[in-house]
Request: fold
Amino acid sequence: MKRVLFGTRRTAAAVGCSSVLVYTLFSVLTAHAQSPDEPKSKAPSRVWEPCTEVIPQGANRPAVIETFPERGVSGYTSNLVLTITHGKGETVMPAGFKVQASSEALKTLQTMGFAIPDQDGGSPAVVERRDQETNAVTTVTIPFVALPPDPGRTEMILPPMPIAVARASGDLMTLCTKPHAILVEDPTINEPDPKVKPNAPPRPQREEWVLAKQVTIGVLIGAVINAVAIYLYLKWRQKPKVKRLPPPKLPWIIALEELSAIRRSTLLADGKGDEYFDKVSDTVRKYLGARYGFDGLETTTDEMRSILRRVVPPIQNFGEIVRFLEDCDLVKFARAVPSNEDCTEALDRGELIVRTTVPPIEKRPAPPKEAA
Reply:
């Protein structure tokens, strides 16, 4: 027995054993006397086993409406359309429509004059389901190609075939279609003297160049990444950079460095005692302003005295600072010419004022021994 598999599944309750439900194709022997109106040839006849329907106990046979064309053309598809009305819990061809291309059943089907098109081609089998209120309707369209062995008009019979229907309980029922006769005509039957036609002109064929596509996509991605990287780099270049300035020197360090530079200068040797004295006075005034928070060069002696008197805690050598400022005003405004000894003494007094007003270094308490 030759069989073509149409996507059924195993069930022991439906067929009595764990076998795969397949389609069995049949050819019916009929004897017809040839007459002038009948076809010139008939397809080879062969006896097949009858299709056996399997209806589980308690199940109702679905209603099947079959449609198959009475006429066809050799080499073209003829569709067998089945309209099956069944319950909502039932599924027609639960595993879909499948054909084993290398099976002996398919080869036998070809010898009988029928072929099933490749399902990946342009005429696949179609199974459509529509649910209604009380039931469901499934339309199955199966294409067949009639390939009669002889040219001319040929009468062929499409044998019955089983249709698998799965129930909600897991049982599987088998429905058998009816045999359908079809009159197959040659495509050139209407031509009195058919000639061999030349091949059609070639058509340009475009193939997908996968490597070129991948390279192009890679180049585009790389270009986008480079553009983003350049944009981010330019934004980073335009970002204002933070300049880390060295910490400012403390006022007393600056004052002592300036006084030391004045001491090493050649102003006294060059006879510029008044300039020497002014530099010492300006250095001390600038230091006092930076130390106590005012502009020492733009503040008069009286204003500076008033400001320094309010400093908390009080300045220890406040009187010496006031006398130094008054002596500097005497030289600056009274046009008194200081001697070299006066200049040297003013420098020593200025260094003493700076050193005595340096804030004391706060000693941090030693950490506990456990923490250390």
In short: The first helix runs from residue 12 to 15. The chain has two domains: 3-185, 251-356.
